[in-house]
Write a structure and sequence with these properties.
Layout lengths: L2 E6 L3 H10 L7 E6 L2 H10 L4 E4 L8 H11 L4 E6 L4 H6 L6 E4 L4 H18 L2 H6 L9 H13 L3 H16 L3 H9 L3 H12 L3 H8 L14 H15 L13 H6 L6 H12 L1
Parallel strand pairs: 1-2, 1-3, 3-4, 4-5
Helix pairs in contact: 2-3, 5-11, 8-9, 10-11, 11-12, 12-14
Length: 279
């Protein structure tokens, strides 16, 4: 199924340029184009879209106002800013309503990768099983309040904590890694739960992405050195050089992924640094 993406910019020439640049995506994206925030809202009221890509400095309803309206009316929609450096003041106003920021001029590959990554992350965070696992904390507005409730949860004796105990016991008895037993018992894993909570707190997508995919970086559309690669390697090395009880299959580094992003040759040096630091 094609992804439905709405582009908004008050300059017709910019929209024409986007149409030409993204012509190769016609088989994957169903694209619409609007020349104002008002026109964009009219389109959205009549048809569902997955992604909004908007300029910031527009007459009438500017980008910040559009993002705020879309967030309120269509909260599940991915919201991306594509704007010039001169729009910093407006961009600051949208810091809580946009998921990603791209600067003009933006090449096709950067735009495609940004949309693909954002969609992959949102699909993970919308998983119904995941929502059920963390349903008791899925509307927490701030970290301190969340911390208090998590601590209360950890000290409680309810069925959820019994399931946590079941996970640990099964892992110890069978030798199966904890993350595999997590999925068997809960239907999701700690990476997905952690990413879901970070998303609720409003952390940047690259941080949420690193947590969500750190066990299986190959499932993320991103193919570059960044937070995800760093967390994946750090997690594997910690398990490789930590106490004996930590030396599980999580110590395995995805070398193919590291090859793809061009840093596989650095792994040996990173391993030496990690081993020295842990010892």
């Amino acid at each position: 199924m094609k992804r439905k993406i709405l582009f908004v910019d008050d300059e017709p020439m910019v929209l024409q340029g986007l149409k030409r640049m993204l012509r190769s995506m016609r088989n994957e994206w169903d694209m619409a184009f609007a020349e104002s925030g008002e026109e964009a809202m009219g389109i959205l009221e009549g048809h569902p879209f997955e992604v909004l890509v908007t300029d910031m400095r527009m007459p009438g309803m500017n980008g910040a106002e559009l993002l705020k309206k879309v967030q309120k009316r269509f909260p599940d929609m991915i919201r991306i800013v594509l704007s010039g450096h001169s729009d910093q003041e407006l961009i600051l106003k949208s810091v809580r309503t946009a998921h990603q920021y791209l600067s003009k001029p933006c090449n096709a590959d950067t735009l495609k990768n940004t949309v693909s990554r954002a969609c992959a992350l949102r699909e993970l965070l919308k998983d119904e099983t995941l929502k059920q696992v963390v349903s008791n904390i899925d509307t927490l507005p701030s970290l301190p309040k969340l911390y208090q409730e998590i601590m209360a949860e950890l000290q409680s004796e309810d069925a959820f904590m019994d399931r946590v105990g079941e996970i640990i016991k099964r892992s110890e008895e069978s030798g199966v890694p904890l993350r595999e037993v997590e999925h068997e018992v809960l239907g999701t894993g700690h990476g997905a739960v952690g990413a879901y909570l970070m998303g609720l707190w409003g952390f940047a997508d690259n941080v949420v992405e690193a947590i969500a995919f750190h066990h299986k970086p190959e499932t993320c559309p991103a193919r570059r050195m960044g937070a995800l690669a760093a967390v994946h390697v750090a997690n594997a090395l910690e398990h490789a050089f930590g106490p004996e009880g930590m030396k599980t299959d999580e110590a395995q580094v995805d070398r193919e992924f590291l090859d793809q992003i061009g840093v596989a040759q650095k792994l040996e040096r990173w391993a030496r640094v990690c081993e020295t630091a842990i010892q």
